[in-house]
Amino acid sequence: MYLPPQFNSDQPHHAADLVRAYPLASLISVDDSGFPFVSHLPLNLQDQDQPWRLLGHVARGNPHWRYLQARPKALVTFFGPHAYLTPKIYPDLTRVPSWNYLAVHCQVEATLIDLPEDKDVLLKHLIADHEPGYAAQWRGLDEGYTQKMLSGIVAFELQVTKLECKLKLNQHRPESHAKLHALYASGNDHERALAGWMSRLGMAEPAPDQND
């Protein structure tokens, strides 16, 4: 992605926090004709070791797993909070609107997971992410039913070979930070999340007086 240096985060924990907070990813590769093919799916991040791994699955009826099997290189994108940026935050009028957003891109190498017991482990990672209490219900289901469910999906591990994290929060315009933070902090869910990231990056303090 286009990644100007002022928006580039080289802190892996920033990317990890975004992936965990916004786990619905776009998995992008190409079909047999060479045209991009996209699946939207939640992914589990395994970042205890390097390189990072992402775990997920698609329905067996989704041809995407066949494309990954034939061409394992793919792109995964995560999109965090985003919001309009009004020029009213600036002290002068010669400004234009923009949009702030947080995003993570991962170049990956895919490996399919075939064994039912391995797919079960993967599903338990996803359950732990989103509804830990469901784990007991899953374990209590009839084995014939769970095996049918497991056979209906194709699971995969995506090894991250390149990571990019873009935090576009108007970092290069410090004269806007105080008003922008106040505006976002009183806004909708996306805006409040961006205000939190501004605070995290030390952007919530008022700009220094130019006459000091």
In short:
The protein is α+β, with helices and mostly antiparallel strands. It is built from seven helices and seven strands, in the order αββββαββαααβαα.
CATH T-level fold name: Pnp Oxidase, Chain A
Total number of strands: 7
Beta content comes to 25-35%
- Relative helix content: 25-40%
Mean pLDDT, all residues: 95
Shape by Cα distribution: elongated
Helix/strand/pairing class, anyone? Answer: alpha+beta
Output the helix-strand order: HEEEEHEEHHHEHH
> Which residue ranges are poorly predicted, with pLDDT under 50 across at least 5 consecutive positions?
207-212
Record keyword descriptors for this entry.
Pnp Oxidase, Chain A, alpha+beta, 7 strands, 7-stranded antiparallel sheet, 33% helix, disordered C terminus, 212 residues
